[in-house]
Write a structure and sequence with these properties.
The structure is a homodimer. By secondary structure, chain A is mostly helical. Chain A has 6 helices and 3 strands. The first copy, chain A, binds a DNA duplex through helix 3 and helix 4. Chains A, B: This is DNA-binding MarR family transcriptional regulator.
Chain lengths: ~150, ~150
DNA sequence: TACGTATGATTCGTGATACGAACTAGGAGG
DNA sequence: CCTCCTAGTTCGTATCACGAATCATACGTA
């Protein structure tokens, strides 16, 4: 119906069973599912896990998190509220601009953040386990190219 | 900290700014975001849109939908309830096995399903717009390889 | 300094999402 | 008939996501 049926261009790549777009949707679903599974193992939700993973490199202002997570300010407030209530993060007021609050991990949050971050990376890389290193590097480069310029 | 820092292996692929796993997470986020944007244009939620897209090829039993969407039975019941309330789908009892209900699109649901399906594919393919056809085909093949065997 | 405006974040109300446990209805085998 | 299994629903709870309204702070300008 559309232009989505891919044409086999190389001998090695056989006949693709779906086009790029459908593949992307499926892939996104798989990633989301992996996130959900790992989160459940640590008694977290996917959103909470993603928040923790955003913080492993240090405190981040609410506004930045809002942009990174594609969340409205009010949605982020709620998410941080719930995670703070569990004692995994804390808010620190910025001294330079007292309007902004930086979110940082507590000790337990740091532990959970590192664990879930590591597990996620392991599981996702394992998805590409049987792809040769060369192809995998190119896959990474192509993905980087797609997400570049999307925030 | 982990083995995620990619090593530049070819002259053409420059220095990647992140590894495969992080790229996958970002990509999943972008796809999710596209889904959300399109859904909003049609006054739907992402989940409702995904449900409609699942039905464009004909009626599907609840149990199958549950598996395809990675949803518990009760969650799916709620989702179908809300979409049915909007008049986009209807439930039909299966004559052979009167326990199963097949979900199918109404006329309006069909229209919305087709429209959102088309828009989603267009927008996602546009994401790879500046990638040469050769690379794009390989990207599709590699993605297919990753999601193969994940249900 | 005082005023108006812009920005960062929270509060509140609403609807959607997702889950598990308990339940109902229908099939399948003895 | 009785039991077991499966397909879906109901119900209660927690989370998620949004927009409008609000509060506090910063900043420019008169």
């Amino acid at each position: 119906m559309t232009h989505t049926e891919a044409v086999p261009t190389e001998a090695g790549t056989a006949e693709p069973e779906f086009g790029l777009a459908v593949g992307l949707v499926r892939l996104a679903g798989v990633v989301q599912h992996v996130f959900g599974e790992i989160s459940r193992e640590y008694d977290l939700t996917s959103q909470q896990t993603q928040l923790l993973c955003m913080l492993v490199n240090g405190p981040v202002p609410m506004a930045t998190l809002s942009r990174l997570l594609h969340l409205e300010k009010s949605s982020l407030t709620g998410l941080v509220d719930r995670v703070e209530r569990r004692g995994l993060v804390r808010r620190q007021r910025c001294a330079q601009d007292r309007r902004v609050w930086r979110v940082s991990l507590t000790d337990e949050g740091e532990r959970l953040g590192n664990d879930t971050h590591r597990d996620t990376i392991d599981r996702l890389e394992k998805l590409a386990g049987d792809i040769p290193a060369n192809d995998r590097d190119q896959l990474t480069a192509l993905i980087a190219r797609m997400v570049r310029g999307t925030g």
